[in-house]
């Protein structure tokens, strides 16, 4: 089995009396896509926020590459390679696609938020940014302003920005949401390639995409892990079919 890169131990998040993450323990291994699925309100986004460091947990642990990062904020975790796609830095509409990616490449490691334009003189960052654009299929749009991108292309740009920041683990919250079926298919193909290099935690409502991509699937219901297993195990689990997949389970 591939090494564990990210792990939670009995992670808990409460909002007042509402237990949103109920002692969740799971792990994400190198070169795998681990998908989290579950009904609306199951706590998927909350869990990803706890993993990225955007939300503090009430109890439990987050271990990244064997190190306890529970007390670290989002920037500290990002610098070590635990990256949530859209949260590294927001898109600057007036800058070009390439400039946005160069900025993400710089921002994750050096916190230098000044001298914007001269950054394009940094050959190492530009090379990394171009590679991320190539990976995400956006090379042809490098020189246009971010404001002119279509919705699907913006999601590709967010992914390119995460890649440029040199992740080891990518946290993706509904990367196909709002995309056309053609755009979704392109993202599925992209994530297939990316898992050769990274560990990916994927939250996605598109079950076709989940069952095509995931090596393991965890089903969350009311903040609790109902079951975790291979796509086949999940597809054939009677309880999962009853609470979530219903008749739409994909054969
Ligand atoms: N800031 C908050 N304060 C209070 N309750 C919250 C807060 N954020 C989330 N919740 C509640 O926590 C529960 C889980 O929400 P969350 O968004 O994590 O679920 P989800 O599985 O991602 O849902 P969806 O599939 O609809 O995106 C919901 O009942 C939601 O109302």
Automatic annotation (TrEMBL):
<dbReference type="InterPro" id="IPR003439">
    <property type="entry name" value="ABC_transporter-like_ATP-bd"/>
</dbReference>
<keyword id="KW-1003">Cell membrane</keyword>
<keyword id="KW-0547">Nucleotide-binding</keyword>
<keyword id="KW-0813">Transport</keyword>
<dbReference type="InterPro" id="IPR003593">
    <property type="entry name" value="AAA+_ATPase"/>
</dbReference>
<dbReference type="GO" id="GO:0005886">
    <property type="term" value="C:plasma membrane"/>
</dbReference>
<keyword id="KW-0472">Membrane</keyword>
<dbReference type="InterPro" id="IPR051120">
    <property type="entry name" value="ABC_AA/LPS_Transport"/>
</dbReference>
<protein>
    <submittedName>
        <fullName>Branched-chain amino acid transport system ATP-binding protein</fullName>
    </submittedName>
</protein>
<dbReference type="InterPro" id="IPR032823">
    <property type="entry name" value="BCA_ABC_TP_C"/>
</dbReference>
<dbReference type="Pfam" id="PF12399">
    <property type="entry name" value="BCA_ABC_TP_C"/>
</dbReference>
<dbReference type="GO" id="GO:0016887">
    <property type="term" value="F:ATP hydrolysis activity"/>
</dbReference>
<dbReference type="InterPro" id="IPR027417">
    <property type="entry name" value="P-loop_NTPase"/>
</dbReference>
<dbReference type="GO" id="GO:0005524">
    <property type="term" value="F:ATP binding"/>
</dbReference>
<keyword id="KW-0067">ATP-binding</keyword>
<feature type="domain" description="ABC transporter">
    <location>
        <begin position="6"/>
        <end position="247"/>
    </location>
</feature>
<dbReference type="Pfam" id="PF00005">
    <property type="entry name" value="ABC_tran"/>
</dbReference>
């Amino acid at each position: 089995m591939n090494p564990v890169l990210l792990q939670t131990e009995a992670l808990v998040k409460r909002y007042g009396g509402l237990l949103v993450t109920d002692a969740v323990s799971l792990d994400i291994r190198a070169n795998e896509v681990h998908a989290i699925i579950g009904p609306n309100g199951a706590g998927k986004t909350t869990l990803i926020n706890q993993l990225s460091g955007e939300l503090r947990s009430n109890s439990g642990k987050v271990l990244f590459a064997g190190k306890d990062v529970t007390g670290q904020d989002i920037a500290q975790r990002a610098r070590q390679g635990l990256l949530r796609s859209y949260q590294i830095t927001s898109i600057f509409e007036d800058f070009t696609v390439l400039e946005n990616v160069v900025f993400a490449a710089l921002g994750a490691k050096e916190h230098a938020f000044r001298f914007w334009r001269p950054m394009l003189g940094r050959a190492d960052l530009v090379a990394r940014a171009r590679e991320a654009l190539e990976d995400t299929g956006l090379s042809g749009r490098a020189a246009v302003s971010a404001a002119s991108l279509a919705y699907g292309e913006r999601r590709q740009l967010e992914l390119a920005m995460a890649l440029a920041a040199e992740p080891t683990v990518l946290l993706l919250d509904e990367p196909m949401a709002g995309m056309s079926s053609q755009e979704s298919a392109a993202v599925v193909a992209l994530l297939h390639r990316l898992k050769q290099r990274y560990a990916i935690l994927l939250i996605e409502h598109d079950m076709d995409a989940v069952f095509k991509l995931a090596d393991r699937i965890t089903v969350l219901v009311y903040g609790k892990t109902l079951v975790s297993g291979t796509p086949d195990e999940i597809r054939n689990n009677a309880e999962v079919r009853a609470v979530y997949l219903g008749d739409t389970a994909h054969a």
